[in-house]
Every structure is written in C-alpha cells, then in structure tokens.
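so i finally got all the pieces together for this one. its two components total, 682 residues if u count the protein bits. some of the lines might not be protein, just check the labels. i wanna see the whole assembly predicted at once instead of chain by chain like last time, that was a mess tbh
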Amino acid sequence: MTQMRKDVFSGRWVIVEESVAVRPSEFQFKPVTREAKFCPFCETNEASTPPEVFAIRPPGSRPNGPGWSVRVVPNSQPRLRIEGQLGRRGEGFHDLMNGVGAHEIIAETPRHDLALHELPPAAIADVVRAWVARILDLERDPRMRHVLIFKNHGEEAGAHTISHSISQLMALPITPRIIKSKLMTAREYFHQKERCIYCDVLQQELRDGTRMVAENPHFAVFVPFAARFPFEMTILPKAHESAFSVIKPDQVEALAHILRMALQKLDGTLGHPPFNLSLQDRPFLRPRMGYWETIDADFHWHLEILPQIVRVTGFEWASFFFYNPVPPEVAARCLAAQRCD
Amino acid sequence: MTQMRKDVFSGRWVIVEESVAVRPSEFQFKPVTREAKFCPFCETNEASTPPEVFAIRPPGSRPNGPGWSVRVVPNSQPRLRIEGQLGRRGEGFHDLMNGVGAHEIIAETPRHDLALHELPPAAIADVVRAWVARILDLERDPRMRHVLIFKNHGEEAGAHTISHSISQLMALPITPRIIKSKLMTAREYFHQKERCIYCDVLQQELRDGTRMVAENPHFAVFVPFAARFPFEMTILPKAHESAFSVIKPDQVEALAHILRMALQKLDGTLGHPPFNLSLQDRPFLRPRMGYWETIDADFHWHLEILPQIVRVTGFEWASFFFYNPVPPEVAARCLAAQRCD
C-alpha cells in the first residue's frame, strides 16, 4: 500500500510505500574507485589547473603551490563563463542569454584517497569556509543572482569524470526554479503566520521524532516527510537564517560535524551508495526583487542529501512526481541507529 | 561556449552548448536485451496477469486468451490502487492522502522480440487506441484528475524489471506539477493574446525549420528550443486540441506514423539509446477547477521523447535546471537526416 505525501516546502507530491518495498540490504554498490592515473586536484599538481581563486593554506605557503587543505579553481571546461555580458534577448517566442556565470571546483582535500565523509571534522569545516568565501566574493558581481553548491559522489550520481573528492559551485544570472518555488511557499506562509515555515516544521519534527536522524546544538538532520529518494536527508540550522554565507564560526564547526555524521550514517546503512549533496540558499538580494522583500524573514537555508540508489524513470520525467519505495520513517530509523566514528 | 535558454512552455532554463560537446558517435549503448525467461506479457501467458481491462482482439477471440494485438492489464504491483477513498488529511504541517489511483500496463505487442518502433504502423495505431480507450474509461471515475501515460525503453530509462515492450498508465487524484505549470503559462499567454502558445510556437518552428525533425499533415516533430536532454523531441498535433482522448481516426493513423518515424530516427542516430516517452495531456475537467475554465482554449496536448543518454547530476537535482551538451539545432539536423523504413 502507498500514501501520497505533499512536500510542504515545494508543493510537490511523492508516492511513498507504507511498508518497505526495498530493504537496505538489497542495495548493492561497488565502492567508489579512484584510479591511480594523473589527477589535477592532487597536491603538487597545482600547475595543471587554472590559477586558484581561493585556498586555505598555512602562513607562508604560496598560492598555486602545495601545502593547502582546501583549494578552489575555475572549472577548465566551465558550463558558464565569467567573461562578458548577459545579452538577454529574444528569438521570436524564445528567450535566451549568454552562458555567463561562474563554474568552480572545490578540491575538498589534497589527498586522492579520501571522500568528504572520511575527512576529520576540522577539514570538513575548511570546506564549508571555502564555500562561504566564494559565495561572498561572487555576491559582489552584480550580474549574479544565485550560487548553487553541489557535490556528486559516486559514478551513478555524476562523478564519472573526476574521481578526486570535489564539490562544485555555479554562480547563476537567474534564480533556479526550485529555489523560486520554495521562496514563494515560504513567503505565503510568513504572510499568513508571521513565522518561518522551516522553523515551524523543524519544531514539529523534533517533537515528533519519527523522522529524526541526528542533531547537535546548532543543526538537525531528518528524513523529509515527502522524501523523493530513499534515505534522503535534510540538514537544517536550528537558528533562523535565510543566507548560508552569514554562518557563524561555531556553526561552521557544528555543520562539519553533523554533515560528516549524516554522510557516514548513509555510507554505513547502504554500503557506500552514490549520492548528491546540494546547498539550498536564498538568492542574492538585488534591486527590483520587490516581491522578495521579506526574504530574510521567510527563507531558511538548508542542505539536501539525495542518495542515488533507484532509477528515475518516465514516470518522474512525465510528471516531476516521485516514487519512494522506502518509508521515510523506516529510513530515519535505520540511519539514526547506524554507528559512525 | 554556452547559451542559457528558457523553455517558453514551462519557464525552466537550460544551459545549452553552442557547439557539439558530445558527438552522436561517442555514445555507446548495449542493445536492449530481452531474456528468454517466462514473460507474463507474451501471448498465451495471459493467465499470469490480472484480468485484462481492455484489449484489441479480432471478433470471436475471448478475453484473457490469445489473439490480441494490444492488451491492457492492471499492474500486479501497483504504485496506486483503484480501491478506496482518497482520505485527504493533515498530520500537523504535512498533507497526505491514500495512494488511490490506477496503475495499468499496456502490452504493446504479443511478441517478446519487438520494440514499439519495430512494429508496423497499424500496430502502433492500436497502441494509441488503447491509450485513448483507457483514458476515456478512467475519466468517468470522479476521484481521478489526471492520466499519465509513459514508456521506459532500455534499462537506463527504467525498463530494468520488464523487458517486454510495454507502456504504463497512471491515473492520479491530483494534477502533476509539470502539467500545472504548463497550464498556467499557456493560460497567461491566452489571456494576453487570445491565441494558444503551442500553436504559435509551432508556426514559428515550421517557418524557421532549424529544429524540425519531421512532419505529416496532422503532426510535427521538433527538437525543443530549450531541450533538457540531448536529442529530445516534441510531437505536437497541428490542429489545436487540449485533450488527447478526442483524437480523430485519421489523426490516430498519422500519430502512429510519426511516432514510429521519430523513434526510428532516434534509434538510428544514436545506436539504440534508452529513452522515455510521455504524454502531456490536460487534466480532466472537474467542478471547482475555476481557474482552468479556459483550459480547452489554452492547452495543447503533446508527446515528449526524452533520450536518457547523459547522467542527471547534483546540478540538476539542486536546481531543476538542465545542461544539454548537444545544441538542439545540431540534434535536429542529425535526426532529420536519419533514414527510417
């Protein structure tokens, strides 16, 4: 038997099995293979990438040399380029603009043999600091409206060309649809209640507990009520904040800990599954964004962890509807029980 | 270099390469394997499925026996069930309802060794007739709001459990988000212009020609301006019509011909790629759908063919934005030139 569940933040529906249709032990994944061939993101190979735009290095260490813990470089085959004007234009009915933006690669570690969740918490905190630094820098470019940060782990999740542990950043001249629709929902709710919908749902999840995976003083991790993917997780800061980039130093440490814990639990529960990670942040505040003037009150940034363990089929593409064979409450119970170091 | 293109029907953006980043010859697919093991959708195995709800059979042939050309049965492991009430309810902030709907399997041919595009046009016309018959029947159920018809061809597109050539039907108690957003856009356009946006774009595509793949007196096939997937195609009826189910007999024949041609061109151009096919139809007209009262004027049904030849990654999931490495104009040129029988 199934239920249809509605995601309160985006309005999309998901068909969710009421009892487990696929057991965690039925999933089989091959461990991420990291070939021994030359890798431009490894320490000492810095000359093989475009010059770095940011790095965390000990005092005295020189840009584009070894010694870094996190290093950010422009993608050498970018999907969007930093040069040029947007050139918004029409072609009859069609709207287009030049592919202007930024596309950067964050090397999360100088070592080729470690995944993000295998790094010590202090190293993950450096990755978070690199994300923040790049967002703050790109916010100064008036052409940009939004920064996406995402990670592909494992071949099936899209990490088939680069095996080094990286995340990616794209600065966009527009606000993505998913973010827009979340903003609109949050705004309508705030208009009615004068409260943030994310804060309210978080309180309910903490009280109810059946979908909670882990928490610490600054963050909570839970399986969303209408999870699209089996074992999907949301990481939400407990304090209300629309913009990721104003995160405070003690929150950075706490985020590193909880992200590491969530990813280790996922890795242990399913046996090294591929996954995507994404930051869902508010757009940059710009003039002429009138209808988002309450954005700082209504939106609430979060991270999404999306295990890629079932195939997306014609059903999803036809409808942008999802089918989840694992009840979120069962997934939460497995993840919460999973030990991590 | 890339362009950002906006899909005029749904409002989503796609990053499109201006020159070919991946050549058709670089794609490699293994042909669809059809194992010899027992298949409940093959002729003479009718007793292994739930009783048929529709079939096209010669006079004298008996239900649930051999002799059919197309046969529709309920899915034995349905994602939605036909029994029971919706039971719309809340759990605190969350909305849910019972998984009520229909989930049916359309066996497109009694033979296990043929794909949809390998059938003669008359057999494909029978598949179209089966789709229409099932929609008309399900429309009478007041709990249903929308019917999705889709097809998964090849393992990577989701056909990993059933190798017989089938399509699937799901009747839903809600209207999917993608359809809703297309309806809204079409409605706004009609409100401004008193014309259908699909009719207008079709005229422009026919005049311009650079994205056209094929046409006949009743249908046109083109690569959409903001195609999400390389070699994506849209099949649009030339005469304005919001509801697929009122298709006329000569249009059924013409649709069978053009669908066969489009799928054969795809198969030949890329060497047997996996793909999804989906019908994008208007919802059923129901009381209390006030804001869709002009639906028959604004919407225009169509089919989408979505080749599954590049991986969806964290970028797409983070943003519902797409990256297409093959310019739609190049894809259209390859497809238009491809011979078919």
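Residues 229 and 324 of chain A are 6 Å apart (CA to CA).
Chain A has one domain: 2-77+96-337.
anyway lmk what u think
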